[in-house]
Fold this sequence. Notes:
Blueprint: H1 3-16, E1 25-27, E2 36-39, E3 45-53, H2 60-77, E4 81-91, H3 97-113, E5 117-125, E6 130-139, E7 155-158, H4 164-172, H5 178-189, H6 193-202, E8 208-210, H7 215-227, E9 230-234, H8 244-249, H9 255-264, E10 268-270, H10 276-283, E11 291-295, H11 300-309, E12 315-321, E13 325-329
Parallel strand pairs: 4-5, 9-13, 10-13
Antiparallel strand pairs: 1-2, 2-3, 3-6, 4-6, 7-11, 7-12, 8-11, 9-12
Helix pairs in contact: 2-3, 4-5, 6-11, 7-9, 9-10
Amino acid sequence: xxxxxxxxxxxxLKNLFSGNGHPQLLVGLGVxxxxxxxxxxxxxxxxxxxxxxxxxxxxxxxxxxxxxANSMSDVYAMGxxxxxxxxxxxxxxxxxxxxxxxxxRGGAEKVIEAGAVIAGGHTxxxxxxxxxxxxxxxxxxxxxxxKGGANPGDILVLTxxxxxxxxSTALKRGIAEADHVEKxxxxxxxxxxxxxxxxxxxxxxxxVTDITGFGLLGHGLEMALASExxxxxxxxxxxxxxxxxxxxxDFVFPGGAANNKLYFEKDVVFASSLTDAQQMILWDPQTSGxxxxxxxxxxxxxxxxxxxxxxxRAWAVGQVTSGHGIEILP
Length: 330
């Protein structure tokens, strides 16, 4: 759903649950965050989220694994660990059952990789395949992350390269190179677990989100507004998947990129030297993208070392300053 439409339809729901009637609900509809958090006791809070989407790749196993990684990502964006998940699926009646099996197998094996379990699920018949997970996780009620809390001087850190929307669109148009698709699939299948664990291990981190449908700038702006600060990104520091610049030069972008630009651009300023193609890369909707973390500078070395020890990349891509919105430097 386009960000403007989503904001409109959710507005009346926020009013229904406003006030202090649910003090155990630590994160809910009152703020735009990645998942809900409900406090159970002084040591435990549960995280709950759900996500599903139509195929972004041709291979059913990879599709299932990507959808599962994407669904679990919101738990990691809140600083938690996944405990169990439920399958959510919609499949055409004429679809070969073996294809459905492979989709579910891809999702299940990704959940196993997360140290969790599939506990059930629900399916319906639909003309277009859709798959994802309803995910439950756990976190300490004093140690969860939200989109707010970034402070001036913090380093902005990204844990996966950008460009999945652009390359998947090239794939749908039949112009994507096999090597580019392979690297995109590997990135989308990677869990954000190691990055979240690294952030929890060093402590002192409050502001985190995962980069998905609203693109880097949409989700980055949500963090900046929640923190009441300005985010400054440096274009030459942003990691891109192989092939992204090639397809972007031909303006191969999904429709969601234009929707993101239309809704969020009033709060974003680009350096005049950046091309339209470069700008659109940053509006590109991501599937199973990385975490964006506002990291106090003193913690950068420790965070990066923990990431490297666990085969997790991290890129310093900007900084937090006083002000409003987002600025993109060359």
